[in-house]
């Protein structure tokens, strides 16, 4: 039985003061529902405020990226997974499509970051997903296989057992165009099949695969009703306490 995970990705939004204000409203709204794990991934500068505000609650904090080694060094603006861990993080998002699209991250660097995050004891949420033109030309499964085989497939079975996969169709991110539960289910199943082929049936049955892309309180139930959807990676709706609580308490 896979415990759902509802993770909020704040992207480049909120200050430390706004982070504190968010948690003051959000925590009471999710205090009684325990059917899902909950995570918030704020910008790096808000992590300390988020960790402090979430202390003693069921909400884990995560980074939105990390560097691919834990050894400190002269890499301006980078943050090691070990630093995130020391700051109180439990999770880290890796390979988000915005990182791939605007900051040239590749499947190869996604793999390196994932390994470093695991080494530091973080739970990586590794993102995959196709562009609109790739879906429209019928290449979704091929693109996902390439991302999977070039990235996640390079983990050892022991490493793989500790990650979460996030499927985010790029055309559904921030557009209001959520994938239908049927489209999301088909694709999640295809990803689970890739996992089974590489790591075996047991690993495929155990791994959590989150859906991301315009998830809101009013569409989360339909998505979560599908057998291969194990939670959500939420952008816009995670910025408002009431909306994210609506997703968490689906
Ligand atoms: O990481 C989250 C996703 O990019 C989804 O963003 P969104 O919920 O604003 O579409």
Automatic annotation (TrEMBL):
The active site is at 96 (electrophile), 168 (proton acceptor). Its EC number is 5.3.1.1. Keywords: Cytoplasm, Gluconeogenesis, Glycolysis, Isomerase. One of its GO terms (molecular function) is triose-phosphate isomerase activity. GO terms for cellular component: cytosol. InterPro entries: Aldolase_TIM (IPR013785), TIM_sf (IPR035990), TrioseP_Isoase_bac/euk (IPR022896), Triosephosphate_isomerase (IPR000652), Triosephosphate_isomerase_AS (IPR020861). It comes from the Bacteria. Homodimer. GO terms for biological process: gluconeogenesis; glyceraldehyde-3-phosphate biosynthetic process; glycerol catabolic process; glycolytic process. Substrate binds at residues 9-11, 174, 214, 235-236. Belongs to the triosephosphate isomerase family. Gene3D superfamilies: Aldolase class I. This is Triosephosphate isomerase. It holds the Pfam family TIM. It is found in: Cytoplasm.
